[in-house]
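Run log // design_07
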């Protein structure tokens, strides 16, 4: 029961997993391949300086007003007029970010939680919830030396507390003209997508919040208990899991040690690019149903 406090005190980061198959793709490497761990904190303008959640924090999530990148407030990063790969990780306790540049500059999404997508997709924004990872390619060649551009969390509605704030994440200062040698790949390794017609069973996980229990969030009307087993899942069988958000809050849903595929969001199989590919965390918006396809393979 200490995860939230540990994360707030900085215990969040990433491992960069390199794949030999990436080398021939021509992606930016070395100093042009940059990890960005994004976390929010409560600044001196908020009354609490330590992790001390109130009942409202339990309901809405522990939200701050100051964004840190790689542990640094008000961060900036000097870039050249070339293509970069940024590996974004949301290491925040509860804050959802709508990632985009202040000038609406387009970029390419190339990877999600479980690795590379099967194609690079152009976008101007995407949502990143706690625990989610997304890799983007950003080309600064259209900027002049001396210009700057800010990566932001763009404003949005929904959720409790201060979700959806307009926040600056990091400023990029264009200071050089060195080339990365990288390019946006025309093709990426293929992904075999599950066939929904092969689903053998469907499970429903309904998210609710109990006001009488101090704002406790529950799944199928049960709060977490390490000593209780709620589901028994046969191996090597394709299942559909329906995550029904009956609350007014955002819920990032994560499965340990397993990659899944998002099938639909609010009934639509036309998914945002950050939902396509191998995932282990999916954002479920307030009053939304997200369907994912799950198969436990290589388990004894």
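design_07 sequence
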């Amino acid at each position: 029961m200490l995860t939230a406090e540990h994360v707030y005190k900085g215990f969040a980061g990433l491992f960069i997993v390199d794949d030999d198959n990436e080398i021939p793709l021509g992606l930016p490497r070395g100093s042009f391949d940059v990890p960005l761990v994004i976390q929010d904190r409560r600044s001196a303008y908020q009354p609490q300086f330590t992790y001390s959640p109130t009942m409202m924090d339990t309901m809405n999530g522990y939200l701050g007003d100051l964004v840190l990148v790689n542990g640094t407030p008000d961060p900036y990063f000097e870039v050249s007029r070339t293509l970069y790969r940024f590996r974004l990780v949301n290491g925040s306790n509860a804050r959802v970010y709508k990632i985009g540049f202040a000038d609406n500059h387009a970029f390419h999404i190339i990877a999600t939680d479980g690795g590379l997508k099967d194609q690079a997709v152009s976008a101007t924004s995407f949502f990143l919830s706690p625990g989610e990872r997304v890799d983007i390619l950003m080309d600064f060649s259209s900027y002049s030396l001396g210009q700057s551009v800010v990566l932001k969390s763009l404003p949005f509605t929904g959720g409790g507390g201060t979700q959806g704030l307009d926040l600056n994440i990091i400023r990029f200062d264009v200071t050089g003209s060195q080339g990365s040698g990288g390019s946006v790949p025309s093709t990426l390794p293929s992904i075999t997508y599950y066939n929904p017609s092969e689903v053998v069973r469907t499970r429903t996980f309904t998210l609710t919040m109990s006001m009488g229990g101090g704002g406790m969030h529950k799944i199928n009307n049960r709060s977490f208990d390490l000593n209780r087993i709620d589901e028994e899942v046969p191996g090597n069988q394709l299942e559909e899991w329906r995550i029904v958000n009956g609350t007014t809050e955002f819920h990032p849903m994560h499965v340990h040690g397993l990659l899944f595929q998002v099938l639909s969001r609010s009934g639509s199989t036309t998914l945002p690019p950050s939902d396509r590919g191998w995932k282990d965390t999916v954002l479920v918006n307030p009053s939304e149903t997200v369907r994912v396809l799950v198969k436990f393979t290589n388990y004894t």
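The helical segments are 3-8, 55-60.
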